[in-house]
Amino acid sequence: MSRLAVAAAAAIALLAAPLCAQKRDERAATVGMRAVVEQVVLPGTELVPAPTTLKAPLALRVLSTWPHGELLRYDFEWTALEPGRYDLAKALVRKDGSALTGLPEVWVEASSVLAKDAREVSEPPPVAPQRLHGYTRLQWTLGALWGIGLLAILFVGRRRKAAAAAAIAPPTLADRLRPLCEAVARGDASSGAKAELERLLVAFWRQRLGLGEQKADAAIAAIKANAEAGALLRAVELWLHAPAQQAPADLPALLTPYRGVVPPAPTEATR
Questions:
Q1: If we measure between CA atoms, which residue out of 111, 113, 114 comes closest to residue 27?
Q2: What DSSP designation does 120 have?
Q3: How many helical (H) and strand (E) elements, i.e. helices and strands, does the chain have?
Q4: Cα–Cα distance for residue pair 177/49, rounded to 1 Å
Q5: Residue 259 — φ and ψ, nearest 5°?
Q6: What's the rounded Cα separation, in Å, for the pair 84 and 31?
Q7: Which of 36, 174, 185, 208 could be joined to 259 by an S-S link, Cβ 3.0–4.6 Å?
Q8: H-assigned helices in 135-229
Q9: pLDDT digits over 147-175, tens only?
Q10: What structural domains and CATH numbers belong to the chain?
């Protein structure tokens, strides 16, 4: 043999060595897991997986096929759906439809990780849930704070709104009449203030007593004749003709009928 032939054979052997070292020969696996058996040499014409059904206990695939002299070499992938020993050769048929004879057995075995009498997926043992310490106390605290906030909104907020409304409430007719009456009693009221005082009193009682259709002199006479309506008007006439003096002590009582009544806008005379 020449040196060239020896060198070529050595090179082929070196290249084939890693391929042989990487050969997979998984003849045992668990149910449902894929396994590979490589470089299985079988005689005869080309083989393919036989038709199967959904109830078949074994699923077989031919990953690759290539010549091996007068034979063929196969790489198989198999998956067992039930535990047991299986002959892969019995899951093959000839591609050309010829008889399946002279095949050696290719045994694989599948095992189960479940108990033999297990029919369904077993449930994990019950485990008590982890207790979150302090969570209940936090709930009670937040609930109490929420209740306090609600009460504050319902009561304190309403009081503040009522106080604000009272603060911005417009002055009543009694509030308008009091400084005018005090000025007239002191004798330092202007003619415009006197006219404004008389106008407010006459307009109020003409509307209250239904004297709107009567003339001014007749309406004033009717107001003076009324015990309640004429009290303040008669007092004003007395202050106008009397010397300057302090407002009488009974002025708040005279202003009682005018409390709670909102007067019309003031005129230029009282501004």
A1: 111
A2: S
A3: 8, 8
A4: 115
A5: -80, 140
A6: 9
A7: 174
A8: 135-151, 157-167, 173-186, 191-209, 216-225
A9: 888 888 887 777 777 666 666 767 888 88
A10: 24-111 (2.60.40), 173-258 (no CATH)
